[in-house]
Amino acid sequence: MRVFVVLHRWWGVAFCMVFAAWFASGIVMHFVPYPARSEADRFAGLVAINRDQVARRPADAVAASGISTMHHGCGLSGAATGRSI
Q1: What is residue 51's DSSP assignment?
Q2: Could you tell me which residues come within 8 angstroms of residue 12 by beta carbon, excluding any fewer than 6 positions away?
């Protein structure tokens, strides 16, 4: 029985440290603002999609997946060019 008391005590100390670190990180996340990035910074590292290398149209991919309905009101557009992908 003494072993369980000692284990319980030290497990409590270990979990106390984990929860204290969790609490402290939550305080930091609450008060420190997330770094802001501009639209140009976010798109600077992206590579354009080569449309010649696209193997399937979206409708073909939906048909191959077995999804019964496709939402025709949704679509993708290129952010830089504005044309449909």
Answers
A1: G
A2: none
What secondary structure, in 3-state letters, does 5-42 show?
Answer: HHHHHHHHHHHHHHHHHHHHHHHHHHHCCCCCCCHHHH
For 48, list phi and psi in degrees, rounded to 5.
-70, 145
Residue 85 in contact with residue 78, Cβ under 8 Å?
A: yes
**End-to-end CA distance of the chain, in Å?**
68
Q: Which of 49, 46, 47, 39 is nearest to 76 (CA)?
A: 49
- The pLDDT tens digits for 21-80 are 999 999 999 999 988 888 888 888 888 888 888 888 888 887 888 776 656 666 665 555
CA distance 22 to 29: 10
3-state secondary structure of 77: strand
**The overall pTM is greater than 0.85:** no
